[in-house]
């Protein structure tokens, strides 16, 4: 009956306090985003532009990929092409092997999560150190991100304190965030200083100049790339923007939408490798080129991974990232999961109240909610429609297309109000699960109309 | 391994109707006084911006701001308080332990407190590894917004460049803001 999302969400809300904290904290981030947006009169115009620039770039992606790669090579970077996750991982490993890298320090990259790079590299004997604080906490806990921008949002300070006691020898019982961050700074500083190579994702690739732009608040991407002689960039092909002029639209939108900051602390532009250093850019397809040909879902390629759709989503806020079966949760994750494998990730499409709030905050104006609605309409065709709800729909179709029967049923319906709860909220009524049913009115509108009980009033 | 052509062919096979590139000609935010806006927003993002007064000595000012800094690194000729020239180092690892780096910024952005620094030291690690960072910026080079900043940048050449807006920070533990994650724990922009 219930989807995997619903079942997992049920577990999540068992801890009422945690549920409330999660909901309120993400809503606070949403409000910070609103404050930032409202300070800029041209905000909506910016979103409109961002959406159009991305659609243009995607529609001419072959051209921009050619341009980006030739410019990047002219700048002295080496460009690699990966059609899927396996190829991506093999390319990264072959670069590391060639340079005899023992320790790799990484900054946050959802693409490497998508490719499951870390377990692959660890299996090959490479030491992989995540350097974003949230990612590092999760790596030490053996967990995956539950949010794409705030990866450890599901963990409490006490849990982090306990983890650091164990792994970083911090003071017992001290869970002050400033203290713990200082401990991590010291500990990770040593990792940066002893790493042989650095890896980053890419927030943007600028086609005209062949440069890669990486945005962080912590400065971890830059610590890694400026201490190591080898920098590997893992970039999804949809990350391209035409030129620096268009980039300006996106750097104004990204941090404001993501965390409600006017800018990330660091917006780094990597154009040429430093003297004696190497820069490798791995351009990854992994299903993206196929999405380009899918007119209903092509807009997902506009995503800049800001996470605003998660922060605003009432279902995400109250069910947590782990309730979703795809590694990217929330509205964008529902869609990306279905594009990856509808048979495997269809449990997530019910995690949406169709409130459309995601559409209204997305900085690239992706039609997230329409797409989710579309997936639901197609569930039956992939054999994933809920059997009970299908049966009920069939019943109602019959009822609504037989007026006499319908009128009779309507007359009888107030009797349901008098039925004992166990009958109304039985397993036969899927809509009675987890919610209160409305009470039926004592008399129907039709009957009141016929009896002249409905008075016309003149609108003023 | 896939070749570039395989991937680009796959992109072409999955065709998408061409969409026009929009004209980017919006009326972006402008401030009556970009300098004071820049100062205000620098503080909002956890940093600071100080206007150098007429006749005030910049070295004395920095000393007052960072009285405890022992290792001070700068390659700027007007900075007399520097204790080492970061450009003398060959290995970025040797820059670890610097208390204060003093560097030059090119463009300030009033809307978000960003300062554009195209790499102007030998090792870019200096911008990130120092415990504290002072950026010296000509107050006449503060633009209103990022569009104006990129308009300037597009006409320049750089191998590496970074916008810095305030000190390094994180909120990864319970969304509690902590200043000083991996990069500088404090950033002061001095507007000369």
Give Rg of chain A in angstroms.
26 Å
Quote the distance from N terminus to C terminus of chain A. 49 Å
Q: What is the spatial order of strands in the main beta sheet of chain A?
A: 1-10-7-4-2-3
The total tally of domains of chain A equals: 3
Q: Tell me about the biggest sheet of chain B?
A: 5 strands, parallel
Mean pLDDT of chain B: 97
Work out the largest interface and the residue count of each chain.
Answer: A-B, 100 and 75 residues
Q: Any idea of the CATH topology of chain B?
A: Rossmann fold
CATH class of chain B: Alpha Beta
Which assembly state applies to the chains in this document? heterodimer
* Helical content band of chain A: 40-55%
Spans where pLDDT lies below 50 across 5 or more residues of chain A = none
> Judging by the overall fold, what is the CATH architecture of chain B?
3-Layer(aba) Sandwich
CATH superfamily of chain B: NagB/RpiA/CoA transferase-like
Number of domains of chain B: 1
Rg of chain B: 20 Å
The CATH superfamily of the largest domain in chain A is identified as NagB/RpiA/CoA transferase-like
Taking the sheet with the most strands of chain A, its summary is: 6 strands, parallel
- So what's the CATH class of the largest domain in chain A? Alpha Beta
Strand/helix succession of chain B? HHEHEEEEHEEHEEEE
- Low-confidence runs of chain B (pLDDT<50, min 5 residues)? none
Can you give keywords for this protein?
heterodimer; A: 460 residues; alpha/beta; Rossmann fold; 3 domains; 6-stranded parallel sheet; 4-stranded mixed sheet; 10% strand; B: 192 residues; 5-stranded parallel sheet; 5 helices; 11 strands; globular
Describe the structure.
The complex is a heterodimer of chains A (460) and B (192). Chain A has three domains: 4-11 and 307-382, no CATH class; 40-155 and 196-289, Rossmann fold; 391-450, no CATH class. Helices cover 50% and strands 10% of the residues of chain A. Chain A is built from 23 helices and ten strands. A six-stranded parallel beta sheet of chain A has the order 1-10-7-4-2-3, with helices on both faces. Chain A has a four-stranded mixed beta sheet with strand order 8-5-6-9. With 192 residues, chain B is of the alpha/beta class. Chain B has a single domain (21-191), classed as 3-Layer(aba) Sandwich (Rossmann fold). Helix content of chain B is 22%, strand content 21%. Chain B is built from five helices and eleven strands. Chain B has helices at 4-13, 34-44, 58-65, 126-129, 146-154, and strands at residues 48-51, 72-73, 100-104, 107-109, 115-118, 132-137, 142-143, 160-164, 169-170, 178-179, 186-191. In chain B, the strands form three sheets. Chain B has a five-stranded parallel beta sheet. In chain B, strands 7-4-5-8 form a four-stranded mixed beta sheet. A two-stranded antiparallel ribbon of chain B has the order 9-10. In chain B, a hairpin with a 7-residue loop joins strand 9 and strand 10. Chain B is globular. The mean pLDDT of chain B is 97. The chains are: A alpha/beta (460), B alpha/beta (192). At the A-B interface, helix 2, helix 3, helix 4, strand 1 and helix 5 of A face helix 1, helix 4, helix 5, strand 8 and strand 9 of B. Strand 9 of chain A pairs antiparallel with strand 8 of chain B, so a sheet runs across the interface.
């Amino acid at each position: 009956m219930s989807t995997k999302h619903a079942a997992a969400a049920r577990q999540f809300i068992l801890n009422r306090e945690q549920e409330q904290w999660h909901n309120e904290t993400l809503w606070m981030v949403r409000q910070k985003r609103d404050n930032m947006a409202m300070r800029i009169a041209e905000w909506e115009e910016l979103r409109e532009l961002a959406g159009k620039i991305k659609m243009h770039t995607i529609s001419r992606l072959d051209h921009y990929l050619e341009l980006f790669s030739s410019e990047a090579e002219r700048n002295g970077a080496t460009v690699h092409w990966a059609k899927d996750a396996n190829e991506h991982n093999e390319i990264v490993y072959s670069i590391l092997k060639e340079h005899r890298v023992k320790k790799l320090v990484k900054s946050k990259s959802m693409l490497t999560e998508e490719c499951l790079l870390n377990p692959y590299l660890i299996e090959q004997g490479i030491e992989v150190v995540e350097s974003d604080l949230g990612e590092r906490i999760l790596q030490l806990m053996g967990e995956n991100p539950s949010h794409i921008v705030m990866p450890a949002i599901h963990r409490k300070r006490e849990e982090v304190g306990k983890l650091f006691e164990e792994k970083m020898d911090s003071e017992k019982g001290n869970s002050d965030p400033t203290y713990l961050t200082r401990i991590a700074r010291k500990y990770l500083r040593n990792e940066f200083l002893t790493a042989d190579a650095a890896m980053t994702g890419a927030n943007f690739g600028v086609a005209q100049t062949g440069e890669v732009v990486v945005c962080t608040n912590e400065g971890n991407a830059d610590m890694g790339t400026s201490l190591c002689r080898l920098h590997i960039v893992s970039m999804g092909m949809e990350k391209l923007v035409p030129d620096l002029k268009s980039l300006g639209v996106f750097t104004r939108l990204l941090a404001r939408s993501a965390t409600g900051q006017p800018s990330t602390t660091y917006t780094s532009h990597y154009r040429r490798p430093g003297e004696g250093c190497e820069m490798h850019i791995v351009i990854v397809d992994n299903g993206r080129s196929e999405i380009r040909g899918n007119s209903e879902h092509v807009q997902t390629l506009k995503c800049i991974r800001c996470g605003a759709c998660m922060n605003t989503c009432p279902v995400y806020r109250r069910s947590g990232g782990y309730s979703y079966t795809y590694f990217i949760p929330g509205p964008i994750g529902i869609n990306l999961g279905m594009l990856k494998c509808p048979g495997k990730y269809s449990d997530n499409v019910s995690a949406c109240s169709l409130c459309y709030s995601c559409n209204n905050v997305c900085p690239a104006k992706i039609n997230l909610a329409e797409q989710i609605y579309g997936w639901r309409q197609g569930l039956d065709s992939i054999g994933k429609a809920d059997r009970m709800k299908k049966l009920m729909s069939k019943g109602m179709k019959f009822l609504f297309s037989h007026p006499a029967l319908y009128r009779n049923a309507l007359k009888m319906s107030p009797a349901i109000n008098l039925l004992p709860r166990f009958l109304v909220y039985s397993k036969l009524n899927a809509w009675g699960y987890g919610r209160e049913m409305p009470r039926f009115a004592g008399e129907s509108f039709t009957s009141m109309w016929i009896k002249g009980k409905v008075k016309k009033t003149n609108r003023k | 391994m896939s070749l570039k052509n395989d991937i680009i062919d796959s992109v072409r096979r999955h065709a998408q109707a061409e969409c026009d590139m929009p004209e980017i000609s919006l009326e972006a935010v402008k401030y009556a006084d970009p300098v004071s806006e820049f100062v205000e927003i620098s503080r909002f993002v956890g940093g600071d911006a100080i206007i150098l007064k007429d006749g005030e000595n910049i070295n004395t000012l920095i000393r007052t701001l960072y009285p405890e800094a022992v290792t001070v690194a700068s390659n700027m000729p007007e900075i007399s308080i520097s204790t080492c020239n970061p450009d003398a180092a060959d290995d970025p690892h040797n820059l670890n332990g610097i208390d204060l780096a003093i560097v030059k910024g090119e463009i300030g952005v009033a809307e978000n407190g960003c300062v554009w620094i195209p790499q102007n030291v030998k090792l870019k690690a200096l911008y990130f590894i120092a415990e504290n960072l002072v950026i010296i910026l000509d107050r006449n080079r503060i633009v209103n917004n990022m569009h104006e900043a990129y308009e300037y940048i597009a006409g320049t050449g750089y191998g590496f460049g970074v916008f810095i807006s305030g000190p390094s920070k994180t909120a990864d533990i319970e969304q509690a803001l902590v200043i000083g994650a991996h990069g500088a724990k404090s950033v002061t922009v001095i507007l000369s």
